[in-house]
Amino acid sequence: MRAVVLVGGFGTRLRPLTLGLPKQMLTVGRVTMLERVVEHLGASGVDEVVLSLGYQPDAFLDEFPDGTCAGVRLSYAVEPEPLDTAGAIAFAARHVGVEERFVAVNGDVLTDLDVADLWARHESFGGAATIALTPVEDPSRFGVVPLDAGGRVEAFIEKPEPGTAPSNWINAGTYVLEPEVLDLVPAGRKVSIEREVFPALVEQGRLYGVQSDSYWIDAGTPEAYLQAHLDLVDGLRPGLSAGLDPSARIDGAARVVRSVVGQGVVVAGGAEVEDSVLLDGARVSAGAVVRRSIVGGRAVVGEGSELTDLTVVGFDEDVPAGTVSSGGRFPGPEAWGG
Could you tell me if 129 and 176 are in contact, meaning their C-beta atoms sit under 8 angstroms apart? Predict the structure, then answer.
């Protein structure tokens, strides 16, 4: 079983954490997001993953120099330009010569979905493609997928207006595809699988869906990235023995609650860290408060600062002493460039 994993995006929603690093190279509980995705695929029977690369491809090549990740063989396909979702899947599949049924997944989705079952259900449907579906409270940010009684997709409604969605079951970003689906993707141009390919398959009656309430999170936003860590701390998912790395230095007069604290992190006396993520080498200075926020690797939160409500501090960034921020970004958008 082969899988194409989409990891070529710029990660704009997670800036400034992704200014110098692809989002799939960010850790989730001290293991990279990509390793979590690939490990799950491997456990489902996938023996080769093709990474569809675009933004900073060398970061992946450097991280996995032996061509394996979580025990699964890796191949690489680097887009010459952004080709959108279907374009990226087709480019990667053609690049490595995929000629059989394969899996395609979004590389920022963390899930416990049974991919082997999805594969088997796809085979029983006899269609061209099968989509995994997950329920959400607000489907307006996603592709909504109503099904008939036989599992056939009746429509593919991308990001409907709030209150207008016919269902709360959305595209979960994991697909089983027959190679003929690639015929719907012209080479060398941007093609969206959600807006072009899937609607075409709906018209042909050859697109199916499988509903699953397995754990699922799109970790590509600060809120979801933080939640993915808190889910590990709360024991909703395996893979984190303790929130505090043994190498972290927490002053006896500091308070750290329900947080993930990485390697070499320092939390000084009088500081408070709650419902937050401190990536490797971060430092929270005396008297500072970090609550429901994310502090990038080797960043320093100055004395007496107060960071709350999804404030995000980039890697190697210094937050001046006394800073008060609710939902801020360090550095701010003015420093992000294009």
Answer: yes
DSSP for 47-99, written as a single string: -EEEEEE-SSHHHHHHH-TTSEETTEEEEEEE-SS--HHHHHHHHHHHHTT--
Closest CA to 123 of 48, 179, 167, 177: 177
Residue type, 245: D
pLDDT tens sequence across 122-135: 999 999 999 999 99
Can you list the domains of the chain with their CATH numbers? 2-221 (3.90.550.10), 242-335 (2.160.10.10)
Mean pLDDT of the chain: 92
Q: What is the pLDDT of residues 139-150, one digit of tens each?
A: 887 878 899 999
Is pTM beyond 0.90? Reply is: yes
User: What pLDDT shows up at residue 338?
Assistant: 61
